[in-house]
Specification:
By secondary structure, the chain is an all-alpha fold. It has nine helices and no strands.
């Protein structure tokens, strides 16, 4: 499936104090370290920047719901053919229970936005923008678009360095 990574995961026994502190902070914040994060932690700044995905998700989830957030990210990952991203989002969607977001948004529109964004952000169909703009306030549109950008960057990073899927994602790889 995926060959040997071009950049390996950080060996904590050989890590510097900043790397160890960033590792420990990530564990404190999110409770675990994925293979991608174990690679990113070579650079604590890079780990922090990519971790902003969670900050945007936390802004969006109460407004449009986790299902819409994960649908967006799955669509982007699918369009980019990123195995790890698709498996991570499928696992998240499989674990969701009923939710009541502040704004019910059409998941087909969210998926169309994600796929179009990943294919060519300059060519998102006006009809998709129109549907989103009618449903969402501008702050939410900004957060949604920023999350899409971070998701693309995350997928590109994992593809470039050869991040291997985490073992718990195996059941979600198609």
């Amino acid at each position: 499936m995926i060959g040997k990574p071009y950049i390996g995961q950080l060996d904590l026994d050989r890590a510097g104090p900043e790397q160890k502190a960033a590792h420990d902070e990530e564990l404190r914040l999110r409770g675990r370290m994925t293979n991608m994060k174990r690679t990113l932690v070579h650079s604590p700044v890079a780990l922090r920047v990519y971790g902003e995905w969670f900050a945007l998700r936390d802004e969006l989830a109460p407004v449009i719901g986790d299902r819409a957030v994960l649908t967006l990210c799955l669509a982007i990952s699918a369009e980019m053919d990123n195995v790890v991203g698709m498996a991570f989002m499928r696992r998240g969607l499989a674990g969701l229970t009923d939710e009541a977001p502040a704004i019910a948004i059409d998941l087909g529109t969210v998926e169309a936005f994600g796929r179009a964004f990943a294919a060519d952000a300059k060519a998102i169909p006006p009809a998709v923008w129109s549907k989103l703009s009618q449903a969402l306030p501008e702050k939410t549109l900004v957060d949604l678009t920023a999350l899409a950008g971070i998701m693309m960057a995350t997928n590109a990073f994992m593809d470039a360095v050869g991040t291997e899927p985490d073992p718990e994602l195996a059941a979600f790889i198609a």
